[in-house]
Amino acid sequence: MAVIYLVANRRATMNIVMRTCTRLISIVTGLFLASCTEETATLSPVSTFDAPRYLGRWYEIARLPNRFEEGLSNVRAEYAPRDATTINVINTGYDAARQRWRSVRGIARFAGAPKIGHLRVSFFRPFYASYKIIALDTNAYQYALVTGNDFSYLWLLARTPQLSDATRTMLTERAAALGFATNRLVYVVHDRADVPAAKELRK
Question: What is the mean pLDDT of residues 162-175?
Answer without folding.
Answer: 97
